[in-house]
């Protein structure tokens, strides 16, 4: 029982810690203006044009840290604060999302693989826990349902793992672009990198928790089959 409580605390604390870290970094550096005095929208447009992506639009979206790139309609969406304000955080986030647009243009293998996994991950995430719960509750009769649930969950875990190189690569491209195009100064480069590193930790935390939960379920299934 004690071990399970420790495990439960870990999978709860890791995501909360990651979210607090990114919010702290974002809040701090969203108050620091860039020397270039460019809004996130202007930063995104500048990088897109410099990379021959004039066809990619930059639009405002509601919410906080709701920034993303949609490959279906070739649009970079920036949250209102990042879209309008001239901050180090806004520049870093905008550049990161453009990094995904550049990946899309170059047909970056990890990004294409992640896109292919999206429908599979969406379906598996909805069905996995149904099979898992039924398989655990009625383990003496339906233990194979637990195995099906584990397989479905593994598809979601694979999506989380594939997301890591995609996000880290986008951040690397972002830093290269904002530095080479002179969109931030040398002193601001360190601050922009802190914002991107903090954001990356949320993906690392999500992947770590997903892997831990998958391993736990595999151990449960192993114990059930061993006792049969």
TrEMBL record:
<feature type="transmembrane region" description="Helical">
    <location>
        <begin position="200"/>
        <end position="221"/>
    </location>
</feature>
<protein>
    <submittedName>
        <fullName>Zinc metallopeptidase</fullName>
    </submittedName>
</protein>
<feature type="transmembrane region" description="Helical">
    <location>
        <begin position="6"/>
        <end position="22"/>
    </location>
</feature>
<dbReference type="Pfam" id="PF04298">
    <property type="entry name" value="Zn_peptidase_2"/>
</dbReference>
<dbReference type="InterPro" id="IPR007395">
    <property type="entry name" value="Zn_peptidase_2"/>
</dbReference>
<keyword id="KW-0472">Membrane</keyword>
<feature type="transmembrane region" description="Helical">
    <location>
        <begin position="145"/>
        <end position="166"/>
    </location>
</feature>
<feature type="transmembrane region" description="Helical">
    <location>
        <begin position="116"/>
        <end position="139"/>
    </location>
</feature>
<keyword id="KW-1133">Transmembrane helix</keyword>
<keyword id="KW-0812">Transmembrane</keyword>
């Amino acid at each position: 029982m004690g071990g399970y409580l420790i495990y439960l605390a870990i999978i709860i604390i890791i995501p909360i810690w990651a979210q607090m870290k990114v919010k702290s970094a974002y809040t701090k550096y969203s108050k620091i203006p860039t020397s270039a005095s460019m809004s996130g929208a202007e930063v995104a447009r500048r990088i897109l044009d410099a990379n021959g992506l004039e066809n990619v639009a930059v639009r405002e979206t509601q919410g906080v840290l709701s920034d993303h790139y949609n490959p279906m309609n070739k649009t970079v969406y920036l949250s209102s604060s990042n879209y309008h304000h001239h901050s180090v955080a806004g520049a870093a986030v905008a550049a990161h999302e453009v990094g995904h647009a550049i990946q899309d243009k170059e047909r970056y293998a990890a990004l294409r693989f992640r896109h292919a996994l999206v429908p599979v991950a969406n379906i598996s995430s909805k069905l996995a826990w149904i099979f898992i719960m039924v398989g655990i509750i009625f383990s003496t009769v339906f233990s194979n349902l637990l195995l099906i649930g584990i397989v479905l969950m593994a598809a979601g875990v694979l999506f989380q793992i594939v997301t890591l190189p995609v996000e880290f690569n986008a951040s690397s491209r972002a830093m290269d672009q904002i530095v080479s195009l002179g969109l931030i100064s040398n002193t601001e480069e360190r601050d922009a990198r802190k914002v991107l590193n903090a954001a990356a930790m949320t993906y690392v935390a999500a992947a770590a928790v997903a892997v831990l939960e998958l391993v736990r379920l595999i151990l449960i299934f192993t114990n059930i089959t061993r006792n049969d």
